[in-house]
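Appendix B, record 7
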Amino acid sequence: MSSRALYFTAHRHIEIREEPIPAPSPGTLLVETHFSALSPGTEMLIYRGDFPEQMPADETIASLTGELAYPLKYGYASVGRVAEVGSPDLAGWGDRLVFSFQPHQTRFFATPAQAIPLPDGITPEQALFLPNMETAVNFVMDGQPSIGERVAVFGQGIVGLLTTALLSRFPLETLTTFDHYPLRREASRLAGATAALVPASLPQSTENPPFDLTYELTGSPAALNDAISVTGFDGRVVIGSWYGRKRAPLDLGGFFHRSRIRLVSSQVSTLATQFSGR
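Structure tokens (predicted):
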């Protein structure tokens, strides 16, 4: 038995490699992958070679061991069906649909702790969005939106849209999103944005910036300047993008310095300390 796996092998090169699959060892499950979702932002960094070198792939995901370096088997959103169990005590797992944080491959091994059974009413396609929604939840928690605030979200990719959908449940005064693509802006309105605009429509004056809380989720470091420029006094800018090795100059010498704007680094591998007991 074998598995086919996707490897990032060099700058802008990928390969599908055949790998032998032994019988599952005691305490493990062999899962046949049905769906594997892309993480567009992170995987494009890896594909283009923009990732930082000598950095762990992900210390919180057991299947992503080692450093970010070519060749790299990557991915973290797989749904499949348990095909074999490694010991009789796991018989109840047989034929179950599960989600697991695994790279792109047609078969994988997981322990029961690494396999999340799909709840009733959740399709395999919906379950693929668990990591993205987990990220969006952390963004919202780190931003701590308050009643009546004016909130902006830059970037309406998958994570941006999910973040917008969560924020729309709060009693905000306005929820404005920015994205270059018309299809994304339309999806943003459907997700609950009160306005979905092109970045070119940003206010040009730095007097009375319109937003109390701003999210930068575009993946472009240049967009951070735009996010800062529209954030008002004592506002927060939550940076959910991972820029890798991409760089852009930041304008921190103007009104930013006197406006007490807070830049918040947010992602998904850890929770803020005040939430870690929940």
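Remarks on this record: The two ends are 43 Å apart (CA to CA). The longest helix spans residues 130-143.
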